[in-house]
Write a structure and sequence with these properties.
mainly alpha; AhpD-like; 2 domains; 7 helices; globular
Length: 106
């Protein structure tokens, strides 16, 4: 379960288990609050992560999007859509992080 999680993240969750459980519950409630399916939700969250230039969130949402049935082409399009909003360097960085995740799965 923890193979892709940074040690500091795991340590934080271990130290503050009750807070982590509440965060997980909130995340589940937010995900279930609307009509979007799991794949679409993950692609949207990926776009937000690209915009925030949040490497861990990009990697995590690529993994979760793939698990929800997204194709690599769909994930690449989400990343590419950030080009005119977030800029070339951010998109190239996110594309690299995506390629790292996809490569791990091969």
């Amino acid at each position: 379960m923890h193979e892709h999680l940074p040690d500091i993240y795991v340590s934080f969750r271990d130290r503050f288990g009750a807070v982590a459980a509440q965060q997980d519950a909130l995340a589940s409630a937010v995900d279930a609050a609307g009509p979007l399916d799991a794949k679409t939700t993950r692609l949207v969250k990926l776009g937000i992560a690209v915009g925030a230039q949040a490497e861990g969130a990009v990697r995590s949402n690529v993994r979760k999007a793939l698990d929800a049935g997204a194709t690599v082409a769909e994930i690449e399009q989400v990343i590419l859509l950030g080009l005119t909003t977030r800029g070339f360097p951010a998109v190239v960085a996110a594309w690299q992080w995506m390629n790292d995740v996809v490569g791990e799965r091969r």
